[in-house]
Amino acid sequence: MIRVILPAHLKNLAHVQGEVQLEVAGPDQDPGPVTQRRVLDVLEAQYPMLLGTIRDRHSGQRRAFVRFYACEEDLSNEPPDAPLPERVVAGQEPFIILGAMAGG
Q1: What digits encode the pLDDT tens for the residues 10-29?
Q2: What does pTM read for this prediction?
Q3: Which three-class secondary structure state does DSSP give residue 53?
Q4: Closest by alpha carbon to 38, among 26, 27, 49?
Q5: Looking at domain 2-99, which CATH architecture does it have?
Q6: Which residue among 37, 79, 83, 94 has the highest number of C-beta atoms inside a 10 angstrom radius?
């Protein structure tokens, strides 16, 4: 089970409180590596109202003001198919999606 923490505005949009828990691979599926892309695919399938809010619907690229963190590391610039840290895959640490701030 993958634990995902969403920013407050996406929690409101998805009508959830606290962490979201996702089953990334079904019992009969080849699990393969757990990646950002797989987690986001499952998240958007389970919460279709989030489509286009975290990544572009067509290109699949992360939105400019969205960041990904796990295990105290910024994973935002990692390739979407790079495996997530083992502690995230084991459910010990959450995959965190944050809205970045900009200003001037």
Answers
A1: 999 999 999 999 999 755 56
A2: 0.89
A3: coil
A4: 26
A5: Roll (3.10)
A6: 94
